[in-house]
Design a protein that fits this description.
2 domains, Rossmann fold, globular, Quinone Oxidoreductase, Chain A, domain 1, binds NADP nicotinamide-adenine-dinucleotide phosphate, seven-stranded mixed β-sheet, six-stranded parallel β-sheet, 10 helices, alpha/beta
Length: 341
């Protein structure tokens, strides 16, 4: 095979505060010859996830990205060369790859690569039928235990996970209220996404709006943001409520990470016999096939929409990750650098 050039973004610095473009370094180098047991993938599309801020900073549920190594991302690629049994040229694969044109991998399992069915849409596999759609599914159904008639409130509601969580709760017969930043996002929630109400946390009094829209209290609160909004929701839970701890993006840029602002109104869990439970989507890995089938069915029926925010070009990866933390993204943040062949 002719020598391939690899353009790559390496992690240059651990972020201080919000991620900066200077936290990454652009390099170009030839692809090294493949060894036995390895596969070489041409990367097609990358997922952008708030958890990457953690991977850039410290060991979390996986080790931190070493400085000087390619930035790690959920991605779909296509195999261009294989020296590994079970993988062949042309196969589509998904896994934790790098911000680069080509990734060499020998890993398998939860944090390695998995084969996708031929003809899979890479963008769908990285959104509704990937991590964020599955997180919404298990967070709402398995952790949130939603039932018809519940008042369901979700923060980060116009994002990848929050929007799908709210639409699933609608499928299950809940009254759904979303909290998101800006009028355009809120209008989309009550329009296209079919929510019953939306609160613009950047321009409204969130506590007053929650009291008005949830007069009997909140039965399920799906939390993507933590901080002040979590406290305001905890102050309004109903008896037997479920508080789903999915993420806390308002805390990710703080020096002390998610411990920066502990919840203040947790005592309400005691008064209301309520439950607050965290989860990682990987905890439900065995149930992915059934969840993917159900999400695909709801999508084909028009009940659950898959709103994408698609950027283009590897050179734009650093600018794209920053969008998650400024709220510039509207729907699932993806970046495409190629098409399957
Ligand atoms: N537990 C798990 O396994 C798991 C898996 C995937 C994701 N998550 C978590 O789910 C949450 C959503 O992730 P996602 O991938 O779906 O991203 P996303 O919601 O599509 O994008 C992030 C959104 O967060 C909002 N945001 C940013 N800074 C904020 C702040 N200071 N306060 C309030 N909102 C803020 C922005 O929306 P606005 O314009 O509305 O501000 C932005 O669009 C994150 O907390 C993530 O860590 C957890």
């Amino acid at each position: 095979m002719a020598e391939l050039k690899n353009r790559r973004w390496l992690l240059a610095a651990r972020p201080q505060g919000i991620i900066k473009e200077s936290d990454f370094k652009w390099t170009e180098a030839p692809v090294a010859p493949l060894k036995d047991g390895q596969v070489l993938m041409r990367n097609l599309a990358f997922s952008f996830d708030p958890t990457q801020r953690g991977w850039m900073s410290m060991d979390t549920y996986i080790p931190a990205i070493p400085l000087g190594q390619p930035m790690r991302a959920g991605a779909v690629g296509q195999i261009v060369e294989s020296k590994r049994n079970g993988f062949a040229k042309g196969d589509l694969v998904q896994g934790l790859l790098g911000w680069e044109d080509y990734t060499t991998s020998e890993a398998e399992g939860t944090f390695g690569i998995q084969k996708l069915a031929p003809g899979t849409d890479p963008l769908m596999a990285l959104s509704l039928l990937g991590t964020t759609g599955l997180t919404a599914y298990f967070g709402t159904i398995s952790v949130g235990q939603v039932k018809a008639g519940d008042t369901f409130v979700v923060s980060g509601a116009a994002g990848a996970t929050g929007s799908v969580a709210g639409m699933i709760a609608k499928v299950k017969g809940c009254r759904v209220i979303g909290i998101a930043g800006g009028r355009a996002k809120c209008d989309w929630l009550t329009g296209e996404a079919g929510f019953d109400g939306a609160i613009d946390y950047k321009n409204e009094d969130v506590g007053a709006a929650l009291s008005k829209l949830c007069p009997k209290g909140i039965d399920v609160y799906f939390d993507n943001v933590g901080g002040e909004i979590l406290d305001l929701a905890l102050a309004r839970i109903s008896n037997g409520a479920r508080v789903v701890l999915c993420g806390a993006i308002s805390q990710y840029n703080e020096a002390q990470g998610v411990a920066a602002r502990p919840p203040r109104n947790y005592f309400n869990l005691i008064f209301h016999g309520a439950r607050m439970e965290g989860f990682l989507v990987f905890h439900f890995a065995r149930q992915y096939p059934q969840a993917i089938a159900e999400l695909a069915k709801w999508h084909s029926e028009g009940k659950v929409k898959n709103k994408l925010d698609l950027q283009l070009g590897l050179e734009n990866a650093p600018k794209t990750i920053i969008r998650l933390f400024t709220g510039a993204n509207f729907g699932k943040q993806l970046l495409k650098i190629g098409d399957p062949q």
